[in-house]
Amino acid sequence: MADRQGRAYDLDVLRQVLTLSFTKQMSRDSFSPQATLCVIGDGFASLTALLLASGSAGRVVLVNLTKTLLVDLWYLRLWMGAYEFEGAVNLVTDAEGLHQVLAAGEDSNGWRSVVAIQAEHHALLRHCPIGMAFNVVSMQEMDPPVIAGYFDDLRAIAGKRPTLFYCCNREEKMLPDGTVTRFANYPWWPGDQILIDELCPWHQHYYAARPPFYRPYDGPIRHRLVRLSV
Questions:
Q1: Which residues constitute the domain of residue 118?
Q2: Does 80 map to a domain?
Q3: Phi and psi of 203, rounded to 5°?
């Protein structure tokens, strides 16, 4: 995947490989070539492409900020090739367009398809048959009301089918405007079934080109896998 995208197999790719390997160990039944999974905030579409390339999902719903989403889609195109990309990737902006894309995907088992949604339209997630969602170090960049909006979307899905959520973010972070986001204060509910909750073993340090080459992040990063309650 990295070769086709002209990328190095760097830490950004490695951590998504480890994320997928770990979540498969925790809930293998959530992954299949027919599964619809969701990635909220995906750098260079690494996790999206990996889910599809490994047969862990047949369809991925990818949500990101508009400019970043364009980057994601460009890297998906590099991996898929222009011809497959044109047939497999759909940008949707309203419920009618989403339902059309989902219906077409059901006809073809959704194999290697991507539903792209701009973050401003994230409420469209509520109409998607998602079995599991991922967020890796992007909720820590969001204001608390935005985080709550995504949780509301995922709980709306969980009201229709069992839904897992893998969340990996800083335990605490101060945003540029002074707002502090805290992992513990995300809108978790007492009824959520926690499958894992710990500091992420592979996400506490990063490497750099100057000594010391292995450096800790600016704060501990926690990951949690939950079956969401409603």
A1: 11-227
A2: yes
A3: -130, 40
CATH number at residue 64: 3.40.50.150
**The total number of structural domains that make up the chain:** 1
Residue 71: φ, ψ to 5°: -65, -45
- Which position has the token pair 């089918």? 161
Dist. CA 90–CA 126, nearest whole Å: 17
Query: Could you give the C-alpha distances from 90 to 157, 177, 198, 212, 223, in angstroms and in order?
Result: 21, 34, 36, 44, 30
CA atoms within 13 A on the CB side of 1: 20
Helices (H), 32-126: 46-53, 66-80, 82-88, 95-107
DSSP 228: -
Tell me, yes or no, whether 138 lies in a domain: yes
What's the predicted TM-score (pTM) here?
A: 0.96
pLDDT band at 112 (very low <50, low <70, confident <90, very high): confident
Residue 140 contacts by C-beta under 8 Å, 6 or more apart in sequence?
Answer: 169, 170, 173, 181, 183
